[in-house]
Amino acid sequence: MSAHAIHFQNVSRAYGHVLAVNDLTVGIGSGITGLVGPNGAGKTTFIGLAVGLLRPHRGRVLLNGSDPWTDPAARAALGYCPDGEGMWGWMSGAEFVETLGICSGLCAAEARQRAQQVLASLEMTAAADKPVRQYSKGMRQKVKLAQAMLHRPRILVLDEPLNGVDPVSRVQILATLKELASSGTAVLVSSHVLHELDSVADQVVLLHRGRLLASGKVQEIRALLDDHPHTVRLVSPRPRDVAKRLVELPGVVSVEIAGEDIVDARTRAPSALYSMLPGLVLDAGVPVHGVRSLDSGLEAVFRYLVKEDAR
Amino acid sequence: MTFGRTAWLMARHFARDVIASRRTLVLSGFLLLAAVIFGVAGLAMGEDTGDRLGLYFLFLYTCVAGIGLQFACQAYGLAATSDEIESGAAVYLFTRPLPRPAILAGRLLAAWAVVSLAFVVLALPVSFALLGARGLSAFLPTAAIVVAAAGCYVCVFALLGLLTRHALLAGLLFVVFWEQPISMLPVAVKSLSIKYHLLCAVRAWVTAPFGQPFPGDEMVEQCEGGGTAALVTVAVVAVVMAGLALQRMRKVEILRSSG
Fold first, then answer.
1. Looking at the partner chain, which of A51, A99, A192 has a beta carbon nearest the beta carbon of B13?
2. A234 CA to centre of own chain
3. Which secondary-structure segment (H or E) carries A7?
4. B1 CB near a chain A CB, below 8 Å?
5. A153 in contact with B at a CB cutoff of 8 Å?
6. Which end of chain B has the smaller Cβ count within 10 Å, N or C?
């Protein structure tokens, strides 16, 4: 039995002649895992395979140790929030969540009680008794999330859960996901808004053209990309002096004055640059008001990896 | 969750779903219209038993063993399968720990029950309005034929919904070009139609006991084996179709294309 909540072992899946997922081997454990890739990368197919909506053409998918396609019991540990809009619009939000709780094995009374709690935690109590068809996109998204969380699943798979959600609710949902992850739930979140995942994901799975580009913690993946210099931005009223000093530092590949008081340095040794910065300020007397890495984030890592993959 | 509990849960859910849907509103309107037309015609008609029997046969031919019930079964059979798969709502059920055949079994039972109930309720006033005191002896076999026909057609359309993405069109073609022109087909082909067997049962159980010829007799004059044999054939077709649909349900994939 796999130790991972979701485990893909040499999984391939095609639609006609198009290979949507190609020989993918990856494990997803506890914490929040971001599933990242551009349109057509295979994210939705990956999720479909993981939750038992699609059958792999090759390889093996395990959800909680069993095959979700053939074994309904494997899906008892699953909470799934789909991306699509299809819902039973005639039901109220509370009924929708409650009904699906019963389908997950809860008794009616427990499902009702938990539906109230979960909807309250998502600030949906006031709208809980309105028909789903009257909901805004953000409200629907919350109800979809509520039905996924209701039975306290060990594995939560969320396909673009922040689509159409207002900024306040986004923060609220991300906080809820963090809370669930800290309590031991394995959360897999697919999103094309990379900076949102960046702030919550413990690890990421990067897909491109159906293949696995990388998986692991963002910083670890970034650290492995030795070929790609890091860009560090410095803010100083004397950018020319800063630039002059920076080019002398070991590992610096290029320096560019990107604005009136902005200098961008590309370095293969970012740690060395950071350690020498105090010396630059103190010894040379060059004022530096701000320093930040431009591409240690998920988006930059992904950009680099996609470029690498295209070579 | 067990097969039985899942099926029961799904039957209740589906019944509530379809009752709240627009298709039930349309069906109710159709049934009401049919009841009014045949009821008024019955009241306006003279006492001639042959005429009344002819009109009752017309009711059976168009509503019970005909296009009315067939369209209703198509609407509800497809609602039990392809409609939710296409809308995406099925993902909520398919990702639960529920056996897929049990999901379909419950929905088929509910679709069967809803259509049967609707047409049996329609047949009740029409039988009495057209046949008066003898209405009961016509209504009971009519109800049995409705139940058998609804079960069979719901299963046929449910299977179609699982086999093709163009189930609505395929169903319409089946109804209009296969089930309707029965009277023009040779006997060997006629017997492959569900409607033929339903009309055999109508002849054996509903109209023959009246002891006089009725307008549709020639369509089923080669019918052998009586009403029971006809309905057993319909039931066998229903069971086979349901079995194939349950098997097919295991293999249905939900494909989405967002990435």
1. A99
2. 29
3. strand A6-15
4. yes
5. no
6. N
Q: Are A185 and A202 a contacting pair, CB within 8 Å?
A: no
Smallest Cα distance from B96 to chain A, Å? 6
Task: Determine how many CB atoms are found less than 10 A away from the CB of residue B218.
Answer: 9
DSSP line for B75-108:
HHHHHHTHHHHHHSTHHHHHTSS--HHHHHHHHH
Q: How far is B47 from chain A (nearest CA, A)?
A: 48
User: Is the CB of A81 inside 8 Å of chain B's CB atoms?
Assistant: no
Q: Answer yes or no: do B1 and A147 touch at CB < 8 A.
A: no
Distance CA B222, CA A99 (A): 51
Question: If you search the block for the tokens 């049967």, which residue do you land on?
Answer: B116
Query: Is the pLDDT reported for residue A293 higher than 80?
Result: no
CA A36 to chain centre: 6
**Closest of A268, A204, A259, A176 to residue A231, by C-alpha:** A268
Query: Average pLDDT, whole number, for chain A?
Result: 86
Q: Which positions 95-114 of B are in contact with A (Cβ < 8 Å)?
A: 95-100
Given a cut of 60, is residue B102 above it in pLDDT?
yes
Residue A198 has pLDDT above 90, yes or no: no
Residue with tokens 């339903």: B198
Does pLDDT of A222 surpass 70? no
Residue A30's SS3 state is coil
Per residue, what are the HEC states of A156-217? Answer: EEEECCCCCCCHHHHHHHHHHHHHHHHCCCEEEEECCCHHHHHHHCCEEEEEECCEEEEEEC
Task: Say if CB A90 and CB A131 are below 8 A apart.
Answer: yes
Distance from A12 to chain B by nearest Cα, in Å? 15
**Number of Cβ within a 10 Å radius of residue B206:** 28
pLDDT confidence tier of residue B215, bands split at 50, 70 and 90: low
**B13 touches A: beta carbon within 8 Å:** yes
Shortest alpha-carbon distance between residue B68 and chain A (Å): 26
Tell me the pLDDT tens digit for each residue of A112-126.
999 999 999 888 999
Question: What confidence tens digit (pLDDT) does each residue in B179-208 have?
Answer: 877 666 777 788 888 988 888 888 888 877
Distances B196 to B32, B77, B146, B189 between C-alpha atoms, Å: 26, 21, 14, 10
ipTM: 0.81
